[in-house]
Amino acid sequence: MGYTCRNIYILSNNQAATKAFGSFQINSKLVWESHQSLVKLAEHNRMQLVCVPGNMGIDGNEIAYQLDKQDSLHSHTGPEPPLSPLQWLPGE
To answer: pLDDT digits over 44-90, tens only?
Structure first.
């Protein structure tokens, strides 16, 4: 993935998604693929996945909110989002 020896913090305002990564049983292909990407990234980095309230005023949170709002205007088929958030990482 190109990232080594870094402290990586992933902040999520989705408590259910955050808990899904810590589950011993993963039932979603999206969660499984994201989990595998995080495991690979964690091999050479220190990572923390943190659940934060959506209204904490964290930089980028408003941008994420607007992107989510914009995406909700489109119709999608299937139970999962059309694109994994991990595919948006720079350098991928």
So the answer is: 999 888 877 766 677 777 777 777 777 777 766 665 655 555 444 45
Query: What is the rounded CA–CA span in Å between residue 9 and residue 50?
Result: 7
Phi, then psi, of 37 in degrees rounded to 5: -65, -40
Q: Is the pTM of this model over 0.90?
A: no
Q: Which residues contact 30 (CB under 8 A, 6 or more apart)?
A: 80, 81, 84
DSSP state of 10: E
| Nearest C-alpha neighbor of 49 from the set 8, 87, 84, 2 | 8
